[in-house]
Each structure stands twice: as structure tokens, then as C-alpha cells.
Amino acid sequence: MLLESHDSEVRMPNKVASFNARTISWMILDFAPNDNFEKQEQVLDETETIALEVMSYFKKCREDHAHWLYGKYEGDFEMQKVGPIFDNRFGWNVIIQIKNQQKMCFEAEKWNFPTESV
Q1: Where are the beta strands (DSSP E) in 1-118?
Q2: Secondary structure of residue 45 in the 3-state scheme
Q3: Do the Cβ atoms of 92 and 48 come closer than 8 Å?
Q4: What pLDDT, in 10s, does the model give residues 2-31?
Q5: Does residue 84 have a cis bond before it (omega within 30 degrees)?
Q6: What number of CA atoms fall less than 13 Å from residue 17's CA on the CB side?
Q7: Which of 42, 79, 101, 116 has the fewest CB atoms within 10 Å, counting from its CB?
Q8: How many Å apart are CA 109 and CA 5, to the nearest integer?
Q9: CA 108 to chain centre
């Protein structure tokens, strides 16, 4: 498993709440020779199964009131086939989004604004 990247998108649906949606991408990869299409298909099938098993665990966690994912992960995900990359590795890139509340309160005392002299 390879943690690929994460991005952030702040959403402010109203004047009170703000959320920081983190898009996280991770890959499940395995090796298959570049000229062996049967092995590539086998690797893709196996890595897809692993990715779906991991996502079923995420589903379980998001439904558990005591788990940190509860209320932060809505359950949607995207899977993209990848390969060949990293020396003939094939597999799946899984993309999920986790939503956190994000404090967006301006604190003037943390800033030093220049004042105009008269």
C-alpha cells in the first residue's frame, strides 16, 4: 500500500460552519511483467479485492460512534486502475474524502498590520 497524496478543500456552507474536506489517495500495487497480460489481469483482480476489503473496513469504522471516522467519512470512494508504474507495478488508486470541522475565525491580535502615517 502506498499513500499517494492528499488535498484540502475548505467549504463554508453557511455563516456559522466551515469544513475542511481532505481528499486522500492511496494505492494497492503488485508486480506483473509488462508483456504478460494474463498476469496483469490477475494482479488487477487481486489488488481490486484488497482495495474493496480495506474500504469495507472503512465502512464499518464510519458506522461506529466510538471511531474517529464517525461523522467525518460519508462512505463514497473512487477507484482508478493504474499501471504500469514503478517498474511494472499494476493496481488500483483509491480516493476518499474525510470531512473535518475547520475553525475559520479571524484573530486580529495575531497580525501586525502596518498603519499609515498622517
Answers
A1: 2-11, 19-31, 73-85, 89-101
A2: helix
A3: yes
A4: 666 677 777 766 676 677 778 888 899 999
A5: yes
A6: 9
A7: 116
A8: 34
A9: 33
